[in-house]
Specification:
The complex is a heterodimer of chains A (112) and B (117).
Chain A lengths: L3 E4 L2 E5 L4 E7 L6 E7 L5 E8 L4 E4 L2 E6 L4 E6 L8 E8 L6 E3 L3 E6 L1
Chain B lengths: L4 E3 L2 E4 L5 E6 L6 E7 L6 E7 L2 E5 L6 E5 L5 E5 L8 E8 L1 H6 L5 E2 L3 E5 L1
Parallel strand pairs in B: 2-11
Antiparallel strand pairs in B: 1-3, 3-8, 4-5, 4-9, 5-6, 7-8, 9-10, 9-11
Classes of the chains: A mainly beta (112), B mainly beta (117).
Chain lengths: 112, 117
């Protein structure tokens, strides 16, 4: 059974800082790993998907890396802005499954 | 291009009642998954529908059931509601071909907030 852990659980930073959000997973036989953003009381928005054959993906100020051998993924947010305030969730499927298991998320607050 | 739409957005029920939640997938998607998200938790997988059949199921009791229609839309039914069923119910759609390539990006709806009193 896949278990996904996200550290830290919460983060509060001033605007402009570069951030690193961490995700670890127990079953490394994954097809892909996905990062999502969730605003309070809202649904999830897909940010980045990294396929198992890839090591990283980039979208604007976001960069996600994947190290299957160590069971870790990192989401890097450059030059953070107040609009980045949200909960960031990492999801990875169990080996042989396409169904992702979610972490509990990192709650991010970027203050002006 | 319409995304995933869910209805209703909010509803309040009492213990013992039954509820039906609805989901229309993103245009072009053929697979629908349902998730339950309690406050402060990550989404928990309930089940997935493809070709009008339940393909996979998470660790949820039989009180949770679903259906997928020929137009790929889906319903989630919960019977005999308990206080612990209060949560945000999320629907996600994807394309079966994406699973085969490992590129199955899930597209989520805004969710249905269920409160059980």
């Amino acid at each position: 059974k896949q278990e996904v852990t996200q550290i830290p659980a919460a983060l509060s930073v001033p605007e402009g800082e570069n951030l690193v959000l961490n995700c670890s997973f127990t079953d490394s036989a994954i097809y892909n790993l996905q990062w999502f953003r969730q605003d309070p009381g809202k649904g999830l928005t897909s940010l980045l998907l990294i396929q198992s054959s890839q090591r990283e993906q980039t979208s604007g100020r976001l960069n996600a890396s994947l190290d299957k051998s160590s069971g870790r993924s990192t989401l890097y947010i450059a030059a953070s802005q107040p609009g980045d305030s949200a909960t960031y969730l990492c999801a990875a499927p169990s080996g042989g499954s396409y169904i992702p298991t979610f972490g509990r998320g990192t709650s991010l607050i970027v203050h002006p | 291009d319409a995304g995933v739409t869910q209805s209703p957005t909010h509803l309040i029920k009492t213990r013992g009642q039954q509820v039906t939640l609805r989901c229309s997938p993103k245009s072009g998607h053929d697979t629908v998954s349902w998730y339950q998200q309690a406050l402060g938790q990550g989404p928990q997988f309930i089940f997935q529908y493809y070709e009008e059949e339940e393909r996979q199921r998470g660790n949820f009791p039989d009180r949770f059931s679903g259906h997928q229609f020929p137009n790929y839309s889906s319903e989630l039914n919960v019977n005999a509601l308990l206080l612990g069923d209060s949560a945000l119910y999320l629907c996600a759609s994807s394309l079966v071909g994406g699973r085969l390539s490992g590129a199955n990006v899930l597209t989520f709806g805004a969710g249905s907030r269920l409160t059980v009193l």
